Amino acid sequence: MDSSTNGVEEPSPWDELYNINFMPSELFLKFRKEIQGIRVALNMEVYNAPINECQAKLIFKPLTPEWRWKVIYEPIHHDVRILSKKIPLTRFLNLQVGVGHSFKMHATGWKWKLTTCLGGDGVSRIRNKTSVGLFPGFDLRFGWRADYVLPELTGGLGTGEPMFNMQSGRLQASLDRVEAILTHSDAD
């Protein structure tokens, strides 16, 4: 008897339930120089997906804790932005605001963004960054995410459902970004 006729669903193969992608879609090379309490950085950003694109950014960021902003200039797009640091609203919710000007379009505007490391579209999501200091002045940072659905156990008695049923969870994880960060600090 065919399993589709009696209402029992065939279990999914393991390769459909769990997928881990180790090919990053973003590669960053960041050069940083700290000068009198300000970090000057040149970022070379390569995006693999959905289209291949390369961007350069020049960033000025005060290192003192009371200054909570940074200036970003994108020479290819002729854009300049002033962004706040992420302001923690709760343990898992952050707010970031910014003002920008496009010299190409002769336009000025502002944006805000609420971000979290949790949540997704219909599934649970964890997004995080992990940094590894290889030696002084050279760090690697990995941006990764995991979308998951936890396994579900159900059952019933006298309802026409099986007494015990298990739906396998799903996991789709990916390494989204790899950053190589070179920092030069003046020794006092």
Task: Explain what you see.
This protein is mainly β. The protein has a domain at 22-76 and 119-185. Helix content is 2%, strand content 61%. The protein is built from one helix and 14 strands. Strands 1, 2, 3, 4, 5, 6, 7, 8, 9, 10, 11 and 14 form a twelve-stranded mixed sheet that branches. Strands 12-13 form a two-stranded antiparallel ribbon. The protein is elongated, with a radius of gyration of 23 Å. The model is unreliable at 1-5 (pLDDT under 50).
Notable features of this structure?
mainly beta; 1 helix; twelve-stranded mixed β-sheet; elongated; DUF7781; two-stranded antiparallel ribbon; single chain; 2% helix; disordered N terminus; 188 residues
